[in-house]
Amino acid sequence: METLGLALMGTGRMAQVYGPKINAHPGLRLEVIYNPRIASAEKAAAQYGGRAMDDLASVLADRGVDAVVIATPTDTHLDYIEAAAQAGKPIYCEKPIDQSLDRVDRALAALDRHAVPFMVGFNRRFDPDNAAFREAVGSGEIGRLTMLMSWSREPSPPPIDYVRASGGYFVDATIHDIDLLCWIAGERPVEVYAAGSCMFDPRIGAEGDFDLTMTTLKMPSGALVHVNNSRACAYGFDQRLEAAGDAGMIQTVNHREDNLVRWDSRRTAAREPLKHFFLERYDLSFDHALDEFYAAVTEGRAPSATADDGRAALAIALACAKSAKSGHAEVPDYRRSHESS
Amino acid sequence: METLGLALMGTGRMAQVYGPKINAHPGLRLEVIYNPRIASAEKAAAQYGGRAMDDLASVLADRGVDAVVIATPTDTHLDYIEAAAQAGKPIYCEKPIDQSLDRVDRALAALDRHAVPFMVGFNRRFDPDNAAFREAVGSGEIGRLTMLMSWSREPSPPPIDYVRASGGYFVDATIHDIDLLCWIAGERPVEVYAAGSCMFDPRIGAEGDFDLTMTTLKMPSGALVHVNNSRACAYGFDQRLEAAGDAGMIQTVNHREDNLVRWDSRRTAAREPLKHFFLERYDLSFDHALDEFYAAVTEGRAPSATADDGRAALAIALACAKSAKSGHAEVPDYRRSHESS
Amino acid sequence: METLGLALMGTGRMAQVYGPKINAHPGLRLEVIYNPRIASAEKAAAQYGGRAMDDLASVLADRGVDAVVIATPTDTHLDYIEAAAQAGKPIYCEKPIDQSLDRVDRALAALDRHAVPFMVGFNRRFDPDNAAFREAVGSGEIGRLTMLMSWSREPSPPPIDYVRASGGYFVDATIHDIDLLCWIAGERPVEVYAAGSCMFDPRIGAEGDFDLTMTTLKMPSGALVHVNNSRACAYGFDQRLEAAGDAGMIQTVNHREDNLVRWDSRRTAAREPLKHFFLERYDLSFDHALDEFYAAVTEGRAPSATADDGRAALAIALACAKSAKSGHAEVPDYRRSHESS
Amino acid sequence: METLGLALMGTGRMAQVYGPKINAHPGLRLEVIYNPRIASAEKAAAQYGGRAMDDLASVLADRGVDAVVIATPTDTHLDYIEAAAQAGKPIYCEKPIDQSLDRVDRALAALDRHAVPFMVGFNRRFDPDNAAFREAVGSGEIGRLTMLMSWSREPSPPPIDYVRASGGYFVDATIHDIDLLCWIAGERPVEVYAAGSCMFDPRIGAEGDFDLTMTTLKMPSGALVHVNNSRACAYGFDQRLEAAGDAGMIQTVNHREDNLVRWDSRRTAAREPLKHFFLERYDLSFDHALDEFYAAVTEGRAPSATADDGRAALAIALACAKSAKSGHAEVPDYRRSHESS
C-alpha cells in the first residue's frame, strides 16, 4: 500500500483529533507536526510522533511531506492553503475554510491557479449512518424528497473564548448540518430563514451570538429543510436526521453508550444517555474522512467535500446568521467575488 | 346527571363527527339537527336522531335546546354565533371561527355584548397524549422550555373543492398545531416565518396554496417553535410533538393500528402503519372536547379553548400565510379591530 | 338489539369486574345479583343495579333471567353449573371451572345431559392484541410455528389467603397462558415440564406453592412453548407474547400508562411503567368476552372458550404443578374420567 | 509493549477467525501455523503470515512460540493440551475442550500436573454488551436475580457433516449460552430440563440431533433460567439476554446492519435485518478474548474462562442432551472422574 507522508499544521483541539488518527491509518504517515512556536510542535510530536517543525517553507519543501492537513486557527487557514497550493501539495483543511466569503474566494483563486486536490473537513458526510441515510434517500426508497430535518444539540456551551473566535453559531456549527443536508438533497437553498435565541449562557448573548437556533432552507425542488441547533442538551449529543418523501420516511438513530434496555419502577424500556460529544459520536467519521482524502490523492481524483462545497456551506451559514439578526429571509451569496479571481 | 339539549348546526363532514358523539355522551342530548335545507336536516336526523329543523329562530327559541354546536361551513359561523349569543345559548364552534380577523372580531364583539360560554373546537388539546405532554412540560420535568416541535402530516391531499374553501393550508390545518403549541408553551409568538411548497397535487399550487409547509415561531421567552405540515404522508397520519428544555426532552408516540412488532427477512422490529387520519387518531379528543364543553356549561365557567384563543391562532396562521408568500418574517396582528368593538 | 337478562352469581372480586361491564354492555341487562347471603347481594345490587336474590331456584326460575354469569368462589362453580344447565340457562363461568379434574368432569357430564351454551372466562383470548397476534400466526405470516413464548409477571404477590384458596400458581395463573398459547398454536402439549421457586414471599413457599415459575410445553407438531410467571414485577404487569416461525417472528407490545417518551441526563427514550395489573391491562378483554358470550347465545352457537378448553387447560396446569414438584416431565391427563359420565 | 509469539494450531474455520485477529493484535505475534498436513499449514501461512510447521514437538520447542491457540477439530484438543501443558506453554483452547467429560478430565489432570495459564474460547463473555449486561446484573441494579433468559437463533442450519461432528446441538451451541448465563448468574444449575425438536432440516433429526431446543436451568439460589436455540432464523442471528430481579429488568439489544429507521405504507419504524451470524455479531468478542488471554499471560494470572468453567459448561450441556432424550430433568455431573486425577 502506497503511504502518504503528512504534515499536520497546528497543535490545537482539532490537531489532537487528527494526529492519532493519521498515525493509526494504514496509508498515512505523520511525517511533520508544524507550529510556528516550536515548543508546541515538539510537545505534540512527543505525543503522536512526527518531526516538529516551525518553518512553513521547510515543511512544504520537505521530501517526506506529500500532503498537508490544516488544523490551525480558522483565520490562518488561507495562508496555509495559498502556500501549500503553490507548493503543489494536496490539502485537507478543517472546516470552515474561513469565516469570510472574500477570504474563501482568495483560497479558491489560489486553488484555481495551482490545481491540487483539496478537501474540506466536513467529517459528518463520512459517518456510516449519515452516508447510509444519503444512499437510502438517493436510491429513491422514500420517493421524491419533500422534507429534510437535522437535529444537532451539543451537551454544553463551549468556553466563551471559543465562542468569540467561532464566527458565530451558524458558521461554527450549523455549517455542518448545512453541508450534510445539501449533500444529501443534492441541491442548495435559494433562500434561508433562521431564528436565534440565547437561553443557556448569557455571555453568549452578550457577544451578539446565539446558543439556540432554528433554520429553514428552501430548496429549488420545493423540498423544505429544517435544522435545529442547541449549545446545551441534558441527555448528550443529540444527532438525528429525518427525511420524508412521497413514498416514505427514513431516520437515523442516535448512538448510545451501551446496548442495554432498562426497566424499573419509574421508567421502562430506558436506554443510556447519548454519546457525550462529537469526539465520541463521530470518532469513525474522522477516520473515514482521512480514508477519502487518502483515496482521492492516491487515485488522482477530487475528494468528496470540495472547496466549492466549503464556500457554499459558508455562504448559506452567513445568510442564516444575517437572517437571524434581520428577522428576514435571506438569499445566500453563491457568486465568487471579483477581486479574488 | 344534568343533561344538556344540543342543537347541532350543520350536516356536513364535521357534523357527522359530532352527531354520533353527542348521542353517545352521557350528559348531552341531540335535540335538534339544523340545516336551512330541511331535506339534509331530515336525512341527518334519521341517522343520528334529533328533530330536523330549518328555521334558525325556531331552533334558538326551542325549549329543548340548551346550547348549540356550530359545524356549518366556516363562512356561516359568524351568523350563528351572533344569533346564538343574542339568544343566550352557550356555543361550541368548530375551528376556525372565521377565516377573516375582522369577522372574528365581530364574533368577539357579539360575545362581549352577550356573555355566553363559548368554546372553539381545538380538539387536539383534549387528546390524552397531548394533554399529558403539556402537563409534563408544565410540571418542569424538562426544565425551562427551549424548543417545541410539531409534526402534522396528512395521509393524502383533500379534494380540490375542499382546498378552495379552506382559507389556505395554514388557516385550515397549521392552526391546530399553532393553538396546541401556544397552549403548551403558555405564550404566543412575537414573530413567525413560514415557507411553503406544492409538491403533491399541482392543483393546490394552481390555487395559490401549499401542500407542504415549515413554520418557525419565535416566542417572547426565547423558546423557538417548529411546525411541519404535509398534505400527503405515505405511512399514515403522522402526529408527533417534541419539547426540549434545559433538563431533558419529551416526545409523544404515534398511534398505530395494532400493537404487534414484526420481524422477517427484510425488516425487523417493524410496526403497522399509523392510524389513517384524524377521525381514527383523534377519536377520543372529540369526546373529551365535548366533556369539557359540558363541564364548563354545567359548572358555569369558561371552557378551555376560548374565543380569544381562536382569534390568536387565526392571527398567527394568517401571519404564516403572509410570510410564506412574502418570504419575510411577519408579526401576528393580536389587536382586535376598532369597527368590531 | 335483543337483550339478554343476566343473573350475576357472586359478589366478590371478579363479580365486581363483571357487574359494571354487564351494565355497560348494549346487549346485556344485569337482572339479578345472587349471593346466598342476601346482605351481600343487596350491597352489590345497590352498586351496579339488578335485583338482589339469595335463592338459587328462584333465580333460575326468574323470567327475566336468560343466562348466568358464575363469578363465585371456584369450589362452588360446579353446583351452579349443574343447576343452571338443568334449568337450561346459558352459562358464562369464570376460570378455572374447578381445581379438580374429577369435578370438571362432573360439570362436563352435566353439560352433556343439558346442552346449554357454555363459556369459560379465558378473557385474554379476547384482548385485541392477543387476538391480532393469533390471527397473524394463523395467517402464516411467520411461516410454520416453531417457538411460542409468554411472559406473565404480576406486580406483587396476592394476600396469602388468596394463595391458599387459589389451587396453586399453575392452576391460578399459568392456566391463562396455557389456554392462550394452545388457542394460538391450535394444538395441546403432549408433555410438560415446569420448574418453580419461591423468591418473593416466603409465606407462599411455606404453603408449598411457588411465586416464580418457568414452564415448557412440547407440542405434537414439534413446536416448543415457554411460559414464565412471576408473582412480583417491579415495573408493572408484564404481559408479552412472542412467536417464531420459519419465515419470521412476531411479538406483542406491553401497554403503558401514557404515550410519552422521556429523555434526561440519566435515561433516554424511557417510557412510563406498565399498566398496573389485569384490571387495567385487560379491561377491554372482559368487554369482548361478554361480546362473545352475547353473540354466541343470541346466534345459537357455541362460544369460543369451551368447557373442553377449560378442562384441557386445567389438565395441563395440573401436570405442570405435578412436574414442578416431581422434577420430571409429565403428560397431561386429557381423558375424561369414567365416574363422571 | 511485550509481545507474545503464538502458535496457531489448526487451519479450519475457527483458525481462519483467529489468524487475522492475532495478526492485528498489538501484543500478539502470529509466529507459527501448525497443521500435520504441511500443505494446509503453508496455505494458511501465505494468507495470514507465520511460519508453516507440521511437527508438534518442533512447534512446542520453537523459541518464538510463547503460547498456543488450539483451533483444531475438537477430538484433537486433548492431545494438544497435554503436549502444550507438558511443554509449559500457556493455552487458549477453542470451545468445547472436548465432547466427553472423561477426556476433559484428562485435560484437567494434565493442567494439574503442569500449571500453565489455560483459557477456553467462550468468546461471548467478552462481547461488550454481554459484559455490560453482567456488570449491571452484578451491580444489583435489578435487585436479586430471579429470572435469566437467553435467545440464540442461528440464521440457517449448518452442513450435515458439521452437525455429525458437532457433538449435538447442546454441546455445540447451547454450551455458549450455558457458560454465559452461569457466568452472569454467578452460580451453576442443580438440575436441568431440555426439550428438542427437528423442524428445519430432517437430516439433523435423522442423526438423532435437534435443530430447535428449549432449556430450563434451576439455580441453587432459586433463580430460573431459560435458553432457546434454533438452527434457523429468518431475520438474522438473534442474540438476546434478559434478566429480571426484584427491582427491575434488563435486556440487551440485537445488532443490526445499519442505524436507519424506515417508514413506508406497509411497515413503520422498521429496522434492517440483524447481523448475519457469529462472525459479524461477535467480531469484537474474539478480539477481546485475545486481549484477556494476552493480559492474563503477561500479568501471570489465570484467564477469565477457566478449564473448570469449560468442564462445567460441558457437564451442563451433556445433561441437557440427556434430558432432551429421556424427557426427564437431569442433574449435571460436576464431579471430576477418578481415573483422570
From TrEMBL, chains A, B, C, D:
Domain of life according to the entry: Bacteria
Keyword Transferase on entry: no
Protein name: Oxidoreductase
Family: Belongs to the Gfo/Idh/MocA family.
SUPFAM superfamilies cross-referenced by the UniProt entry: Glyceraldehyde-3-phosphate dehydrogenase-like, C-terminal domain (SSF55347), NAD(P)-binding Rossmann-fold domains (SSF51735)
Domain Gfo/Idh/MocA-like oxidoreductase N-terminal: 6-122
Pfam families found in the cross-reference section: GFO_IDH_MocA (PF01408), GFO_IDH_MocA_C3 (PF22725)
Organism (species): Roseivivax halodurans JCM 10272
InterPro entries: Gfo/Idh/MocA-like_OxRdtase_N (IPR000683), GFO_IDH_MocA-like_dom (IPR055170), Myo_inos_IolG (IPR030827), NAD(P)-bd_dom_sf (IPR036291)
Transmembrane feature ranges: none
GO terms for cellular component: cytoplasm
Keywords for this protein: Oxidoreductase
Ranges where the GFO/IDH/MocA-like oxidoreductase domain occurs: 132-250
UniProt keyword Ligase, yes or no: no
GO annotation (BP), single: NADPH regeneration
GO molecular function: nucleotide binding; oxidoreductase activity
